[in-house]
Amino acid sequence: LHILIQGSLIVLDEFLILLEEISSVEDVKLVAEKIMGAMSVAHLLGNIEKTISFSIGAAVYPDDAADSEALMHCADQAMYLAKGSGRNNFKFYQNEQA
Fold first, then answer.
1. How many CB atoms within 10 Å of residue 65?
2. Of these four, 12, 17, 21, 36, which has the most CB atoms within 10 Å of its CB?
3. What pTM was computed for the model?
4. How many CB atoms are located within 10 Å of the residue 45 CB?
5. Handedness of CA 91, 92, 97, 98 (dihedral sign)
């Protein structure tokens, strides 16, 4: 996952990952698959082993939004679409979601 450029905590259980200079949406999908693979294994939290479930939503600039605030909103909508599809899902923003 070394191609992850920047990450930050948005709310207690939501994170933002910014990928710069991607050549295609397939690059975004590849990163999401790597994250899903890394997180699908059990992790040791203290002395308790846990498997973490998560949902990934993605939006692409400038295809989905013209500014950073709108882009984050689109990614958030895609994440909730992924959450609605069951655990451990990844979805791209689709304009029909708006």
1. 17
2. 17
3. 0.79
4. 9
5. positive
Low pLDDT (below 70) residues in the chain: 1-12, 97-98
CA distance 82 to 43: 22
Q: Which domain holds residue 86?
A: 6-97
Specify if 1 maps to a domain: no
Residue 77 domain flag: yes
Contact between 87 and 53 under an 8 Å Cβ cutoff? The reply is: yes
| Interatomic CA distance for residues 49 and 54, integer angstroms | 16
And the tokens for 27? Answer: 């690059």
What phi and psi, each to the nearest 5 degrees, are found at residue 11? -130, 180
pLDDT of 10 reads: 56
